[in-house]
Write a structure and sequence with these properties.
Layout lengths: L4 E5 L4 H12 L3 E6 L2 H8 L2 H6 L5 E5 L18 E4 L15 H21 L6 E5 L9 H4 L25 H23 L4 E7 L1 E3 L17 H7 L8 E2 L2 E3 H10 L9 E4 L11 H9 L1 H5 L11 E2 L6 H7 L6 H15 L6
Parallel strand pairs: 1-2, 1-4, 2-3, 4-5, 5-6, 6-10, 7-9, 8-11
Helix pairs in contact: 1-8, 4-6, 9-12
Keywords: Oxidoreductase
Organism: Oidiodendron maius (strain Zn)
Pfam family, one: Epimerase
Length: about 350
Amino acid sequence: MANDLIFITGATGHIGFKTLVVALQHGYSVRAAVRSESKKEQILSAPSIKSLNPGHKLTFVIVPDLTAKGAYDQATKDAAYVIHLASPIVLKGEIRPEDFQRALIGPAISGTLNILQAAAKESSIKRVVITSSISAIIPVEYFFELEAPEGIVFDHTSRPASAPNTYPSDFYAYNASKIAALKATHAFVQDNKPRFEVTNILPSFVIGRNELVSELKDITIGTNVAALSPILGNKSVTPIIGASVHLDDISLMHVKALDPKVPAGDYIGNSDDYAGTVWQNATRIVAENFPKAVANGIFPNDGTSPTRRLRLNVSKTEDIMGFKFLSYEEQVKSVVAHYLELRGEKAE
């Protein structure tokens, strides 16, 4: 590759770190934005990075505040590509309702625009890939209040009529942040007509082994909890939309989106076709694949996790990117094997 340098933000995140690894495996050079030296060391100490031994192919730049004006102007210098994964996330109860706009929605927009503006100043950049979410294309009521009617199928062209303007919970604010950031991206492209192309990746719930999680107490932080919860005996009565994607697949999508043979656009990441994810199936999957761990009481495997059905059409993604999404079963096996590893147990 004449210029194979990717500038990646969010490199210590669930999706971000795996995307960094996949990019290196595909022969790219990576310049990773991290908030501190300790985050840099966290990446360098990961087994997959040590195994790859990337040397000069992996470099770092410290960007402590992704929302600061011009935050990425120097970091994008001489890069051919940008993968922007950094965006505010929310852990339940960590942000007060009166702070949702300041802590979630504003930073999601400003961080995205900062990347696009920095890329526009750098003539070497050919493509920008941005991590969005299916939250940006699905009305929020289908997440919490209603099951989508039988005939409704969402695809990459779907858009909610409006974003939430009141936030009964942190997820409503997160939903609004993703809608706003995607709108800002499309508006930037339309208004500025940049020389580079822009692709948005829209994952559903991302499930899979997060290598940077090294302590058992942290394994249920983030979206992996949706798969682990019934296995660990948690009993929920609140339905979760039945949409998930393997971490390996969503990371691969980000890297494949750099290929000029893949048209720029919006691509959904989701497994199991229209049937979608049935969260309760995790207990069956664990009983079949990890019977000793169940028999030994490591997994109570008696929790409940109802599903709110949702239909997503990902045929565009699979056809153009050339792979079939891994099943929910593979997602569950990935996080359960990691759970056992962190306990010092052998996976069966």
